[in-house]
Amino acid sequence: MPKVFHQHEFVLLAILVGLCLVIGSVNPAFLEVDNLFGILTSSVTPGILALGALVVLISGNIDISFPSIAAFSLYVTTLLATNLAVTDQIMLLLVISAAVGCLLGLVNAVLVHHARLPALIVTLGTGSLIRGGLLAFIGTRIITDLPDSMIAFSKRTMWQVHSEEGASVGLAVSVRIFLALALLTHLILTRTMLGRGIYALGGAPESARRVGFNIALIQLFIYGFMGFLAGLVGILHAAKMRNANPFDLAGLELNVIAAVVLGGASITGGRGTVLGTLLGVALLVVIGNSLLLVGLPSVWHKVATGLIIIVSTGFTAWRGGLAPSTGGAS
Amino acid sequence: MNLGDRNLFRLAAITVVIFVTMSLVTRGRFLSVANFESMAFMLPELAILSLAMALAMLTGGIDLSVVATANLAGVVAALAITHLLPAEAGLGTTVLVVAAGAVLAITSGAICGGINGLLISRFNISAILATLGTMQLFTGIALVVTSGKAITGLPKIVQSFGNDTILGVPIPFCFFAAITLFVWVLVERTPFGLRLRLTGSNPVAAVFSGISVPSILFRTYLTTGILASLTGLLMIARTNSAKADYGSSYLLQAILVAVLGGVNPAGGFGTVKGIILAVVALLLLASGFNMLHFSNFSKEFTWGLFLLVIMVFNYFANSRQRR
């Protein structure tokens, strides 16, 4: 039903544009270049995580441990870098962090696939194990003297724009990494046999196994990929914040999963696109950004997020119809 | 022995091991009367939340909003009591106002549970996502009405409900015993309980045997919400205050207890006996950790480890048995 997908993404785009126009008319500051660049920059963290969560959801699984994985990778990598004084290569830091994240993701995959445990409960367990382990045994101190390469990276911008006041505004380089990863995820999902396998696993696991997909390998990939992206996000986030804070990112899983579901992915698996996810992330980030701009106090943010999750999942469940409700937990 | 009995036996063995280890490691301090009394005060909140969680998991679902519901109910009760109570109120009026607050809290719990039930049974939203959303929503509402601050200034009678004893038994413990009895009868001795477990173990068979699955799901989440609101009342009685984001670590622990107590996350299996035994095991562990001055972070680490180890162990033990 490609037509339906197009409709969903078209509806999202229409809502997004309409919302931007409304907010822009209430508060013109919203449509200025520096605010729009700011929105793009703040979508990097939830956006990259959403790409991983999309792959996990399409395969019919769920992962709520990725914020813990991201915090763990970012903190351990920064600690390594400052202690061993490997500070000159941002690429090296990204690779180390992504590798740490990927390894932790593979642990999830092994537990979910080989021990046949429900993914929600496994990742709830690994999430608290990783976060608790990080804070109890590795450290709770916020590292503020980041490696030089991370500071330099966070200052690099592209597309310099000069505003009327003469200040120059640029787009953070991390946005480019985000877009490249989005393209990569899109290509994996739509142009490779692996991607077909991921959709097949989510649509009908037993059929996927019988037509010869290697389910173990697919499970390893989806959780490994989620961990890999979480590791990357960790370093990008630390560079943006100019510190490595082990308490950061906790609780982000809800917003990320909400964004992916808002983008049209189904929690029971088999459906979802990168474009929809990007629009879902954009919508959530714009709403989060604009609640303050239109003057809604911050205590309302949780209510807004909750309503968005309920309405969007309700809409997807209603649209995608109509499988008998079993209220499945896994 | 059947599957349930073996899980229960294993759990009893784990509990004894924890008990003996903690007694040895703390050099007997663990065995003091004061420690057991403090555990008897700590147990009811976690136990009732775990029973609520277990009910949802018995149907093959989950309720991530239990703690949010409990806090919202607590906030509702505290707001009602502090606003309705006239200055210089006599004992009679105070009791009446507190009772009204409790009724309002339970009503709000029923509404929360009802919303979950509607979303899951009528709108076919998966239980994880529906309760993920309502968890945010309920916490958000509690945050909005309290502006994020704790509500204090409750009358003395509320505090004594949470902290006094009758004949040496803490009042919350009596409360908990009554609720456990109610849940036990509901799940294991009524037609509703039978249908609930059948729905969880095989929803398709449940439909074909004439069970209205949506109605069972709705009533289960309604009960879950009410149980959560009762926990909320216990929380405000014990701490003498209400807050929108109190006790968030209870969520993981409630799931841990349900899984530990033999509730199959895919639905259908689990007993009230097992859950109570699991709460006791977890509490012995927590109380021992407190004595050994473990940080909250290492507790979080241990809960996660414990959850995974138990599940992996159960999986291997049960699959060997089946062969």
Task: Summarize this entry quickly.
The complex is a heterodimer of chains A (330) and B (323). In chain A, strands 1-2 form a two-stranded antiparallel ribbon.
Give a structural overview:
The complex is a heterodimer of chains A (330) and B (323). Chain A has 330 residues and is mainly α. Chain A has one domain: ABC transporter involved in vitamin B12 uptake, BtuC (Orthogonal Bundle), CATH 1.10.3470. Chain A has helices at residues 2-26, 33-42, 44-58, 66-84, 90-114, 119-138, 148-155, 174-191, 193-203, 205-210, 215-241, 252-262, 274-293, 301-320, and strands at 157-162, 168-172. Chain A has a two-stranded antiparallel ribbon with strand order 1-2. With 323 residues, chain B is mainly α. Chain B has a single domain, classed as ABC transporter involved in vitamin B12 uptake, BtuC (Orthogonal Bundle), CATH 1.10.3470. Helices cover 76% and strands 1% of the residues of chain B. Chain B has 13 helices and 2 strands; from the N terminus they run H-H-H-H-H-H-E-E-H-H-H-H-H-H-H. The mean pLDDT of chain B is 88. At the A-B interface, helix 6, helix 12 and helix 14 of A face helix 4, helix 5, helix 9, helix 10 and helix 11 of B.
List keywords for this structure.
heterodimer, A: 330 residues, mainly alpha, ABC transporter involved in vitamin B12 uptake, BtuC, two-stranded antiparallel sheet, 14 helices, 2 strands, 71% helix, globular, B: 323 residues, 13 helices
Let me know the CATH homologous superfamily of chain B.
ABC transporter involved in vitamin B12 uptake, BtuC
CATH fold group of chain A: ABC transporter involved in vitamin B12 uptake, BtuC
Mean pLDDT across all amino acids of chain B? 88
Alpha-carbon Rg of chain B, integer: 20 Å
Please name the CATH architecture of chain A.
Orthogonal Bundle
The portion of residues forming beta strands of chain B comes to under 5%
Give the radius of gyration of chain A: 20 Å
Order of helices and strands of chain B: HHHHHHEEHHHHHHH
Number of helices of chain A: 14
The largest β sheet of chain A comes out as: 2 strands, antiparallel
Instruction: Give the CA-CA distance, first to last residue of chain A.
Output: 26 Å
Structural class assignment of chain B: mainly alpha
CATH topology of chain B: ABC transporter involved in vitamin B12 uptake, BtuC
CATH class type of chain A:
Mainly Alpha
- How many domains of chain B? 1
Architecture of chain B, CATH level 2? Orthogonal Bundle
Give the largest interface: A-B, 55 and 58 residues
| Poorly predicted runs of 5 or more residues of chain B | none
Assigned CATH class of chain B: Mainly Alpha
Would you list the SSEs of chain A in sequence order as H and E? HHHHHHHEEHHHHHHH
First-residue to last-residue Cα separation of chain B: 15 Å
